[in-house]
Write a structure and sequence with these properties.
Elements lengths: L3 H16 L6 E4 L4 H5 L7 E4 L17 E7 L2 E7 L10 H13 L4 E10 L9 E9 L28 H10 L4 E7 L8 H9 L4 E3 L3 H9 L3 E11 L10 H22 L4
Parallel strand pairs: 1-4, 1-5, 5-9, 6-7, 7-8
Antiparallel strand pairs: 2-3, 3-4, 5-8, 6-9
Length: about 270
């Protein structure tokens, strides 16, 4: 079985050859609702289906279409990952981390992880974007489980003290001072959390809940990339209000916020 680092290198080589891009500077993983906003960064000069690259799996979740788009923003080559996969689709942690590892193997030194999430803090309602300052991983797994990384890669015992880069967060908050920070709690899903689980997450210090991001962040930091996390609050978490939760509402919230998300990305990319 090909180790995940070799697989990511193979995928990166295929991507660079197809796109004619020797080196990407930045990658943005587009969560639910963020794809439409990313169009504000400009028309892609190359687009490819993820399933044509080694190690990628088809996406099964509405809002994640399985494409990699190459965009030029100023002097930066930006890779847009439109179609992450999740643990709850039956994938391994290595599968979930593969797009991020591929982007880094293609040269990206900064990774922006976006998502749609549930809000715990009643002052940060639907439509609010929150900068992730830290996370709590309740997925019960890690992309670093299993065999040790091959020679040439860092120790699997990676320090996560500065997982969500202080430097990048400071740059973004300086450019967009209306943003605030929060702690993202990652669950496995696909079911939404119970009110009791939200109470637990609140007690632990969480302000956001979701089913992605945490494993990608760990994998990116292990490979030396700086990580920025941006969460769109698409709904209040279970028990914060009496409203029922649905994925269609998550997608609708993203559609409604698309223009503002695009404006935000256009402000954020130049300062990374």
């Amino acid at each position: 079985m090909t180790n995940p680092y070799t697989l990511a290198t193979q995928a990166a080589d295929t991507l660079r050859s197809a796109s004619g891009t020797d080196h990407y500077d930045l990658a943005i993983v587009l969560g639910s609702g963020w794809k439409e906003g990313a169009s504000a960064l400009g028309a892609p000069y190359h687009e490819i289906a993820t399933t044509t690259l080694p190690g990628f799996h088809p996406t099964t979740v509405p809002g994640h279409e399985g494409r990699l788009l190459s965009v030029r923003v100023g002097d930066k080559h930006v890779l847009l990952v439109a179609g992450r996969v999740h643990l709850y689709e039956g994938h391994s942690a290595a599968d979930v981390a593969h797009p991020v590892r591929t982007a880094i193997a293609a040269g990206a030194t900064s990774i922006v992880l976006t998502n749609a999430c549930g809000g715990i803090d009643p002052t940060k309602g639907p439509g609010t974007v929150v900068v992730i300052k830290d996370h709590i991983n309740l997925t019960a797994t890690s992309p670093l489980e299993g065999a040790a990384p091959p020679d040439g890669f860092g120790s699997r015992f990676v320090d996560l003290t500065d997982l969500y880069s202080r430097r990048l967060r400071a740059n973004v908050l300086g450019a967009v001072p209306t943003l605030s920070e929060g702690v993202y709690v990652g669950f496995r899903g696909p079911h939404y959390e119970t009110p009791a689980e939200i109470t637990m997450a609140t007690t632990m210090g969480g302000t956001l809940v979701g089913m992605s991001t945490v494993l990608e962040a760990i994998a990116a930091r292990h490979l030396g990339a700086e990580v920025l996390g941006l969460s769109l609050v698409s709904n209040f978490a279970a028990g914060v209000t009496q409203e029922a939760l649905s994925h269609s509402d998550v997608l609708a919230a993203g559609q409604e916020a698309a223009a503002s998300l695009g404006q935000l990305l256009a402000q954020v990319v130049p300062v990374l």
